[in-house]
Amino acid sequence: MSRGLASFQKYMPTELVRTLVSQGVEARPGGSQQTLTVMFTDVVGFTGIAEDLGDRAVPVLARYLEAVSAAVLNHCGTIDKFIGDGVMAFWGAPMPSERHAVDACAAALECQRLLALQRAEAERCGGTPLRMRVGINTGRMLIGNIGSSERLSYTVIGDPVNVASRLEPLGKIYGVDIIIGEDTRTAAGDSIIVRRLDRVAVYGRMRDFVIYELLGMAEGTSAEIRGWVGSYEAGLAAYEDRNWLEALRLFEAAADCRGGDRPSEILLERCRACLANPPPDDWTPISLRESK
């Protein structure tokens, strides 16, 4: 029985169960609407990596999942589930926290830091270096025991959750590691350093919204980062004002500072297209529609 219980704890988040029991939450379907922050992660190109490694992919994946899990738990998050090589986690429940957006951003940055250490070790030892993308979003979602009377999952569902899952793959388009939604950016406020990437309309959602690249926590961010972010965002302002020549100059400056920058390159292409063929007066700047 002792061995069975010890094994069972690896399948069930025991600390979560203790918290729910202490709050008097019964193990039956039900939930409530709360404002929370949710995160999705995904390993870049893991399908190909798994095909190449075969069963040797299991320890590689385990080390990655351990790093992500540690970062989430270190910053007061709840691991919802592992989805293949991805992780879904949320903040603000079951223990309430006003810092849920800040903690989620800090966890994502720690995930990337820990994975960079693993990557450096893998490159030294001839292992398999991994990269990952992260999507984070904040909003009012349903949290609770979702499922049937026989099998339950303490999880979150709703539009903000769907948006977070759509943000992660957008990192491939923009060449960035962490994308957050505008509600997360608002909730985290001055605690984080970001740059505005684009205005997007994701699959299954009518309203468009702004997305940001998360660059770091405000404390400890270098003046160099703040410098090129200033050039980039000044370029965005010029682009939106239809001052495309000035936007070209500013985006080129930002790209030069970084030694290459995919978001700047995307906007340089848009500026050149606008100069070659000026859009109509009702033009909506920075718009992208993403398929599922």
Explain this structure.
It is built from ten helices and nine strands. Strands 1, 2, 3, 4, 5, 6, 7, 8 and 9 form a nine-stranded mixed β-sheet that branches. It is 49% helix and 25% strand. It is globular and about 70 Å long. The chain has two domains: 188 residues, Alpha-Beta Plaits (2-Layer Sandwich), CATH 3.30.70; 57 residues. By secondary structure, the protein is of the alpha+beta class. The longest helix has 26 residues. A hairpin with a 2-residue loop joins strand 2 and strand 3.
Short description:
The chain has helices at 2-11, 14-22, 46-53, 57-74, 100-125, 159-174, 182-188, 223-240, 244-258, 262-276; strands at 30-43, 78-83, 86-91, 132-147, 152-157, 178-181, 192-201, 209-217, 287-289. With 292 residues, it is an alpha+beta fold. The chain has 2 domains: 31-218, 2-Layer Sandwich (Alpha-Beta Plaits), CATH 3.30.70; 222-278.
